[in-house]
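Colleagues,

For the teaching module next term, I've prepared a clean inverse folding example: a structure given as tokens, and then the sequence designed for it. I'd like students to try predicting residues themselves before seeing the answer, so please don't circulate the second half yet.
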């Protein structure tokens, strides 16, 4: 991720071993953090689990091979500062939030280096990371629904986490216009930072927009299947608190084509 005011690169770097597998462990403390975040924000629990699995393999100590992204949801420094500024007081960090300021270009900066370090170190707090990820998804979901006219799917919410909400809308529209077009040409910066997503495995053969979307869905399916095996009464929040009653897993068409 980079700074949230520069959405095309929001989540550019991924932890090197973050991709979830059937063997990825689902720590109880992580699941409880996700459950609490879902309950408090109204964001779909399954989405949060899928996103955490995709981003870090459920590891709160995950760190991207490049850049500043770290933690359960791989927040970069700029984005995390923005989330602390906007939501820190709500979740018990008013003292830190008030020491963050917004610059003219929209970036959030700390009053001093000590404050910056204290804020950024909290990315390893799984509970706070879950809350901030949920708040970001909530904001993105509203923007995507306003732009597309439909409830965002889990994959679309991930696109917003990856590209920022405006980038996600561009991606959705690009798929509607021509799903076979080269995704790396549409999003060159994101492709440079996420070659495994935008290019065929082990090659420089660029993937189509449709292929990138399908790859995202496939990767998100792994943690979704894992959470499906968790007893609902033990770990899921109360019914009716999701981003929608039933967040779609596939993207509705927006161009009326069959």
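(Answer key — instructors only)
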């Amino acid at each position: 991720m980079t700074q949230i005011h520069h959405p095309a690169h929001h989540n550019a770097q991924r932890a090197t071993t973050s991709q979830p597998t059937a063997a990825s462990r689902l720590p109880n403390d992580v699941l409880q953090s996700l459950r609490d975040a879902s309950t408090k924000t109204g964001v779909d629990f399954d989405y949060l689990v899928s996103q955490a699995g995709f981003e870090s393999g459920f590891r709160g100590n995950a760190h991207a091979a490049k850049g500043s992204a770290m933690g359960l949801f791989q927040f970069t420094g700029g984005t995390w500062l923005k989330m602390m500024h906007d939501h820190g007081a709500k979740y018990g960090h008013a003292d830190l939030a008030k020491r963050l300021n917004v610059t003219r270009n929209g970036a959030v900066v700390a009053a001093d280096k000590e404050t910056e370090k204290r804020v950024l170190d909290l990315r390893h707090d799984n509970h706070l990371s879950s809350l901030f990820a949920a708040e970001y998804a909530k904001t993105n979901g509203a923007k995507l629904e306003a732009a597309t006219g439909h409830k965002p799917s889990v994959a679309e919410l991930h696109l917003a986490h990856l590209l920022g909400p405006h980038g996600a809308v561009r991606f959705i529209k690009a798929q509607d216009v021509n799903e076979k077009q080269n995704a790396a040409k549409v999003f060159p910066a994101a492709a440079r930072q996420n070659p495994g997503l935008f290019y065929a495995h082990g090659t420089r053969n660029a993937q189509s927009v449709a292929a990138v979307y399908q790859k995202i869905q496939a990767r998100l399916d792994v943690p979704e299947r894992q959470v499906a095996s968790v007893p609902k009464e033990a770990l899921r929040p109360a019914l009716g608190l999701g981003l929608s009653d039933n967040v779609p897993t596939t993207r509705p068409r927006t161009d009326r084509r069959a």
